[in-house]
Amino acid sequence: MDARTKILETATRLFAMQGYDSTSLSQVAKDASVSKALIFWHFETKENLFQEVVTRTIAPYSLEVDLEGLSEPEQLKKLIDLYYEFVTQNLYSVRFFLSLFLREGARPDDLFGRILELHELYRKQLGEVIERGQERGTVARDVNPPAHAALIMSALNGILVQGFVWPTPTPSPDATLAQLKATLVDTIQVQ
Amino acid sequence: MDARTKILETATRLFAMQGYDSTSLSQVAKDASVSKALIFWHFETKENLFQEVVTRTIAPYSLEVDLEGLSEPEQLKKLIDLYYEFVTQNLYSVRFFLSLFLREGARPDDLFGRILELHELYRKQLGEVIERGQERGTVARDVNPPAHAALIMSALNGILVQGFVWPTPTPSPDATLAQLKATLVDTIQVQ
DNA sequence: GTCTATATACAGATAGAC
DNA sequence: GTCTATCTGTATATAGAC
Asked: What pLDDT band is residue A164 in, cutting at 50, 70 and 90?
């Protein structure tokens, strides 16, 4: 691996674990086994390095979902599982971005817009699936699609955050996820 | 106001907004209109100052709830509203503690245990109210009390976090809260 | 591209006058 | 209790050899 990549990977790990301010370039240099000067040669400033890290981290985020051949309630469950899976497979960076969001004067980058946009799209997709289910008769009519979609997203995000905050949440995130699907999907299903 | 209190209040504000690392004692001193040396005279170290800030912030947290004369579903709604109200009235410190939790190597203080304990108690209380409702016939029997309580807490926390992350969430937190009560309380009610 | 050595600024913390 | 002046370490960043 070339030095530039090594620096990027080390910085990504350290920024995610410790945050921007408490990660020094001396530490990055040491962990990446390069000199501090080399970091500046490649990235000019610490801020630039951070930007590249963020860009690289967010790049693979996407939402390609195949819902072919499933009933609407099944589609909802699949979307829920995929969201949960995505988050657990990207725990470090999700945690990283969440802590950035929480800081006042957070960097007003377009990159954050991208994350919010993805989240928005997911919520919309849930709402649309509910709506289509109502048209096709697989989902109860008395459900408000956008409101119900928002509640599902909130519950998902809540499960996620509790996983961050608690060492060993009680009950487990998996159990709460199952409860979510049982309560927020199965009950609106029309047999 | 005496200088010591002035320092504490200034530090509380700055730590909450910017975090521990990116808040310098020079800035605290300047904002509080005192010398840096005075901060050290009062608090010895930056870490000590931080500890005092945390202690002071968490002190008023409590859970005195009066549920007298309400049916179990009404009790659930009241608990939900109180949690939501508490959080919105303590947004700064909730945000502060959440961002502390998200940092690896987060300070393993007993104080954090206190927050987690409060959260745990709240979840338990929800579960107990559901259970009592089942015994008294006001709540459906096919509900799993602890699991349902955990889902409600997750949804509440999700709403909270979305409020932090989004500038103007769509739909509004209030709307999602209403949806929560309609979906997770009204539907388990027995008339 | 990569290094060592250095410049510069500012952090946390101390000394000592008042 | 509160200050000014200062110490010491470490941060970001630069200069210049190889």
From this structure: confident
- State how far the Cα of B80 lies from the Cα of B116, in Å rounded to an integer: 17
Contact B166, A116 (CB under 8 A): yes
Q: pTM for the complete prediction?
A: 0.91
**At which residue do the structure tokens 């008023």 appear?**
B60
HSE-up (13 A, CA, CB side) for residue A64: 2
Look at residue A178 in the predicted model and tell me its pLDDT: 97
- DSSP H or E segment with residue A167: none
Q: Which residue in B179, B185, B186, B189 has the most chain A C-beta atoms within 10 A of its own C-beta, making it the best mutation to test that interface?
A: B179
Q: Determine the distance from the C-alpha atom of residue B116 to the mean position of all C-alpha atoms in its chain, rounded to a whole number.
A: 10
Between CA A58 and CA A100 the distance in angstroms is 13
Q: What is the pLDDT of residue B140?
A: 97
User: Taking Cα atoms as reference points, which of A137, A132, A126, A150 lies closest to residue A78?
Assistant: A126
Distance CA B99, CA B112 (A): 12
Would you state the torsion angle of the CA atoms of residues A90, A95, A98, A99, taken in this order, to the nearest 10 degrees? -150
Nucleotide nearest to A24 (CA to C1'): D11
Number of Cβ within a 10 Å radius of residue A82:
16
How many Å from the CA of A13 to C1' of C5?
Answer: 29
> Nearest nt to B23, CA vs C1'?
C11
Residues A138, A190: Cα–Cα separation, whole Å: 5
| CA dist list (Å): B83 to B91, B144, B149, B156, B175 | 12, 21, 13, 8, 16
The pair of three-digit structure tokens given for residue B30, joined into one six-digit string = 């300047």
Q: Which residues of A touch B155 (CB under 8 A)?
A: 151, 154-155, 158
User: Under an 8 A CB cutoff, do B151 and A21 touch?
Assistant: no
Q: Is A108 on the interface with B (CB under 8 A)?
A: no
Convert the pLDDT of each residue in B35-49 to its tens digit. Answer: 999 999 999 999 999
